[in-house]
Amino acid sequence: MPDELLQVEGLTKHFPVRGRGLVRAVDGIDFTVTAGETLGLVGESGCGKTTTGRMLVRLLEPTGGRIVFEGRDISHAGRRALRLLRQDLQIIFQDPYASLNPRHTVGRIVAMPLEVNGISPPGGVKQRVRELLELVGLNPEHYNRYPHEFSGGQRQRIGIARALALRPKLIVADEPVSALDVSIQAQVVNLLRGLQRDLGLAFVFIAHDLAVVRHFCQRVAVMYLGRIVEIGDREQIYERPRHPYTRALLSAVPEVTVPAKADGRIRLAGDVPTPLDPPSGCRFRTRCWKAQEVCATTEPPLDEGVACHFPEGGRE
Amino acid sequence: MSLSSEIVGPELTPDAPPAPKGVDVAGRSPGQLAWARLRRDRVAVISGCALLFFLFIAIAAPLIELAYGIGPYEQFQSKLRRSDGMPLGYAGGISGDHWFGLEPNSGRDIFIRLIYGIRTSLFIAVTAALLTSLIGITLGILAGYLGGWVDAVIGWIIDFALALPFLIFYGPRDEVPTWFRVAVLIAIFATFGWTGMARLVRGQVISLREREFVEAARASGAGLGHMLFRQLLPNLWAPILVSFSLAVPAYVTGEAALSFLNIGIRDPTPDFGVMIFRSIDYLQGDPAYVFFPGITIFVLVLAFNLFGDALRDALDPKSSR
Q1: For position B163, which CATH number holds?
Q2: What's the domain range around B134?
Q3: Residue B228 belongs to some domain of the structure
């Protein structure tokens, strides 16, 4: 086993809904991230990607399961323990228009993590902030400007600089480019890629855009209704998907080069079932064309990277 | 596909306008932008000047007394008609010595009493507004940010304070020192007036609490103090300022109304409410007496309200930041 940076076991988050039971937003997921690795977390809206990301940085308290970071169980760590942890574990947000305090200058925003942790870097806070701004491709002279003077892409760069301020080892990127213009998305993804390479950062990259994930991530986990249905290397997921849901998801991506073939596309019937009352057994069975009786009674375990009774290519 | 692995090109393309090297580019803060908008607004400028004028009068009242040469308690009985106590001369005894005339019966100078009336009135109103803001901001920000039982308890206290008919708490009908009457007035306004500010701030905080910049601070390990005062409070100044500038005229009229009912400030302390209350008795014989305090309180309240509205426009224009 390579050195595991983050280990997630049976992570669960249930939200109580008054009078209607529990929303099983995340229902027992396992994965690991090694140092310097990028793991993509994909799935459609409402499958629990964002909830997972927020639990990793402990913005949400897990209902169950374990999050182990560098060998320490942090799933229920107290405030003091979290303080140290938060220097190693940071988050980049989706909406660059909501993630920067409109009343603070760029300098203050980027220096905030240093300020709240009482860190004074050598050369001074201001010098460090300038370095960070330069690192993310912003003009360090913009130190005294306010967020409203920047474009969406620039704002996202400011958010990235803030996440880098404490020199974290792992960054959870919660749909960092989906709010941006397509033309800007590439710049920001390439920036993240460069940072990952140069600083040896590990990423948990949450996205619904399969193309972005393919471009950025070494490993990919596919989520459906609070569970991981398939996890594996990028090539394996994209070239040889084994779970029916992964196949359906990939076939839904429109292709520019090849004329669209209607027969090649898998159309899923119906909607995602409500997480208030997920289907018994395999959660995907209500929409799966391969579903048989066993799917309704037994929940398939995540075995060899796929949670399906009848995976593509069969069981080895 | 918008993004695929064949994307090449410059790794970093800062889409910022180039800035001159070596100097800090200072941006204009949202506050500075609001200030610029305020200065372009003619109503704001005029009402703001009126406010400064009134504040100056209130602060400099003793100096004005010195220059004018007459105190608020001086009586000029010799300038009143013996038979019914009405001031001699035209329009309530207006003359070079007494610019706004004399009070019937007591023979006190209306101008200097008005000056001191502004001082009393503004002192009570501004102090009460400051206190209500302080209490309201503190409780509102805590209720909004912490939520849960803290929010429930504060909400319950707000409902309780709103339900109480606060005027019954205004007691002193007997002879008590003036400072005590003023203190009681301020205390009454502060005790029962903070609810509006608390609700306003609580609502704002609840909408801000879920914003990602607050979560970013939390993810960096920020404590409660940093959250409330560094992250949230700077985003609350706009509604607080507007609410404050609209609370002051409300307290001016509130205080005048209580004094008019003879349960606030009492004669001989110079005050709008007291003057108007007294002038009602002489409405037919000396209409000029009601005119000056009436018009002054009208202009004062109007100026505050107009300025408050202009401030709201300047701080929160339709164009979002």
Answers
A1: 1.10.3720.10
A2: 114-315
A3: yes
A11: β partners: A29
Cβ contact (<8 Å) for B216 and A91?
Answer: yes
B31: chain A residues, CB-CB within 8 Å: 103
Task: Find where tokens 């690991």 sit.
Answer: A32
Phi, psi of B289 (to 5 degrees): -65, -40
Min Cα distance B193 → chain A (Å) is 28
A166 touches chain B (CB under 8 A): yes
H helices within chain A, ranges in order? 49-56, 79-88, 106-116, 125-135, 152-164, 182-199, 210-216, 234-239, 244-251, 293-297
Domains contained in chain B, number: 1
Å from B11 to nearest chain A CA?
6
End-to-end distance of chain B based on CA atoms, in angstroms? 32
Name the residue type at position A234: R
CA distance B58 to B54: 6
Cβ of A82 within 8 Å of Cβ of B221? The answer is yes
Cα angle B303, B309, B311 (rounded to 5 degrees) comes to: 100
Contacts of B221 in chain A (CB under 8 A): 82-83, 86-87, 113, 116-117
- Does an H or E element contain B152, and which? helix B148-163
Whose tokens are 């619904």? That residue is A208
User: Closest to B4 (Cβ–Cβ): which among A141, A182, A215?
Assistant: A215
- Determine, yes or no, domain membership for B89: no
Nearest CA in chain B to A55: B219
- The Cα–Cα gap between A230 and B17 comes to 45
- Does any domain span residue B60? no
Residues 6+ apart with CB under 8 A from A9: A30, A65, A66, A68
Give a yes or no: residue B14 inside a domain.
no
Q: Name the pTM for this structure.
A: 0.79
| pLDDT, tens digit only, all 316 positions of chain A | 457 889 999 899 998 888 778 888 888 899 999 988 999 999 888 888 889 999 998 888 899 889 998 888 888 887 777 877 888 889 999 888 889 988 888 999 999 999 888 888 888 888 999 999 999 989 888 888 888 888 889 999 999 999 999 889 999 999 888 888 888 888 899 999 999 999 889 999 998 888 889 888 999 999 998 889 999 999 888 888 888 888 888 888 776 665 655 556 777 777 788 888 888 888 888 888 888 888 888 888 887 888 888 887 766 5
Q: B27 and chain A: CB distance < 8 Å anywhere?
A: yes
